[in-house]
Design brief:
By secondary structure, the chain is mostly beta strands. It folds into two domains: 3-54, no CATH class; 69-156, Immunoglobulins (Immunoglobulin-like, Sandwich). It contains one helix and eleven strands; from the N terminus they run H-E-E-E-E-E-E-E-E-E-E-E. It has a four-stranded antiparallel β-sheet with strand order 4-6-9-8, with no helix packed on it. It starts with a helix and ends with a strand. The model is unreliable at 15-26 and 30-34 (pLDDT under 50).
Length: 157
């Protein structure tokens, strides 16, 4: 009997009270397959044979979390030489411990507060030498995945 035939037979007869016993590594009967299963398989008219099957537990890792998505920021602008500006970042798939980056020089993210999977609150400092113009906001989750919002923030003169 092939392994597939045995598996199909066991699955088909499992509800019929098919005689089977399970043994663990110490060969103790316990009704659950810890590592080995001993099953009785019909081999002829009224005859059965014991077959020992080694079982393995296969653990499949969960799928990776989706990367963050940055959709908008409020406010969407701030002037050069701003010592403290609170900004809300909206999107999705944010997790606690995420970091935030703003493109261009002379802008530092001073504080990040995780509000929920769709919102982070940050505090920016925009230096006096920051160049006016559009900026990209990048959110990076602790697992290394990141998402960007292109041209969502403007540094004004």
């Amino acid at each position: 009997m092939s392994a597939n035939t045995i598996s199909e037979y066991l699955a088909f007869h499992a509800e019929d009270g098919f005689p089977r016993e399970f043994y663990n590594e110490l060969d103790e009967s316990n009704n659950e397959a810890d590592r080995f299963a001993r099953v009785k398989v019909p081999v002829g008219l009224g005859e059965t044979s014991d077959i020992d099957i080694t079982t393995e537990t296969i653990t499949t890792p969960p799928p990776p979390s989706p990367a963050p998505v940055v959709t908008s920021v409020v406010p969407n602008s701030g002037p050069v030489n701003t010592k403290s500006l609170d900004v809300q970042i909206f999107g999705g798939h944010f997790v606690a411990g995420a970091t935030v980056g703003v493109s261009g020089g002379q802008i530092s993210v001073r504080r990040i507060t995780f509000i929920g999977s769709s919102q982070l609150d940050i505090n920016l400092r925009i230096g006096r030498r920051a160049s006016p113009g559009l900026r990209v906001i990048t959110v990076t989750n602790p697992d290394g995945q990141s998402g960007t919002g292109e041209d969502l923030f403007v540094v004004t003169p």
